[in-house]
Design goal:
The chain has 6 helices and no strands. The chain is mostly helical. It has one domain. The longest helix has 26 residues. The protein is globular, with a radius of gyration of 15 Å.
Amino acid sequence: MPAREYAARKFILVILLAIASFHDIREQKVPLWVCAAIFGINVIHSVMVYKSVVQWIIGFILLAALMALYFLNRNLIGLGDILLVTSCVQSLRAENTMKFLFLTFAFASLSGIFKCIRNKSFNSVSVPLSPCVAAAFILLI
């Protein structure tokens, strides 16, 4: 039964991240219901299957750090991106957290560099973070 639960959870999370990526690319907004759905799946998974508090502690520490960054400069990262990153961190195992964060921000940096080269300008370039989160999450799940 846990193998089926893991496969179903993985499939649903990938679908939700694809929806978030689509909205982030098109409208530059991450739907709050996607973050809430991922959070709900994480709660159910941690209560029923995993029973570990470590990922929740890591997620809340990351949430506090990213919220501090958001309040310092609101143009760096959006609230939807913060919620999406922290909810994805809670979906992964503790040993994959740093890999996930590194891959997410490496993908965002690379796409930002390509976007700057394509626009031939380094001013006011915004990069949707959700596709980078989705790619890193799919690689590590």
